[in-house]
Design brief:
The structure is a single chain. The chain is α+β, with helices and mostly antiparallel strands. The chain is built from eight helices and eleven strands. It folds into two domains: 131 residues, Jelly Rolls (Sandwich), CATH 2.60.120; 72 residues, Orthogonal Bundle (Arc Repressor Mutant, subunit A). The strands form three sheets. Strands 1-8-3-6 form a four-stranded antiparallel beta sheet. The longest helix has 27 residues.
């Protein structure tokens, strides 16, 4: 059930089986809210199919996208230890999720030293990757950020014709730029013959040149 999901790739078969025993399948309709700040933690989630947006709200009420969880992605990983959720999560599409239950996970983490070590190693790698992403958002120009994200989606969706999981305004926020900058840069990429935008669909026309922008 959980085999093949990147976050669990380095777990032993024994620990993978232990996790599956505390995993529950959940279906979520497009637009449905999974949790909100203050809700008691049920555990953390892995997307099997669909997409989930994780977001917060500023003191002025502005929504800030923190993560777009696509198939194979895990989110709310800290919630078993926090006890409550500290952000919002809603389905961007009809989605199927795996819930790794909170108490079962805590029992496994506190009762199996080797599992705890493996899990801490995995979280450490995620922190490193997050820092790299923050550096990318800070230092790389908008074209590189958009190109990198489109190539990632193409890889995940296994197609040069991809579907954006959120409206472009939200995607701009996620990539650390204003929506005006995103629209202008996306138009430049289209005018250069690298991509074609049609609503929420994007056709990658020149993958090699797009990849050169990310180097």
């Amino acid at each position: 059930m959980l085999a093949g999901i990147p976050i669990f790739a380095n777990l032993s078969q024994e620990h993978l089986k232990a996790l599956e025993e505390i995993t529950q399948g959940i279906s979520l309709a497009k637009g449905a809210q999974l949790f909100a700040p203050g809700d008691p933690s049920r555990g953390f989630y892995v997307v099997r199919d669909g997409a989930v947006r994780v977001y917060g709200r500023s003191s002025q009420g502005k929504e800030i996208t923190q993560e777009i969880a696509d198939p194979g992605s895990a989110f709310a990983l800290a919630s078993p230890f926090a006890g409550t959720y500290h952000c919002f999560a809603e389905a961007l599409q009809d989605s199927r999720l795996f819930l790794i239950k909170r108490q079962g996970f805590l029992d496994l983490a506190t009762g199996d030293k080797q599992f705890a070590i493996e899990w801490m190693r995995m979280l450490s790698l995620m922190v490193i990757n997050l820092r790299r992403r923050l550096i990318d958002l800070t230092l790389t120009p908008p074209k590189s950020r958009i190109a990198s994200y489109l190539l990632l989606l193409a890889e995940m969706q296994d197609s040069p014709s991809i579907t954006l999981p959120v409206p472009r305004r939200d995607l701009a926020n996620f990539l650390g730029m204003t929506h005006e900058t995103f629209y202008r840069t996306a138009k430049e990429l289209a005018n250069d013959g690298l991509v074609r935008f049609t609503g929420q669909s994007v056709d990658i026309l020149d993958r090699n040149r797009l990849a050169e922008m990310t180097e």
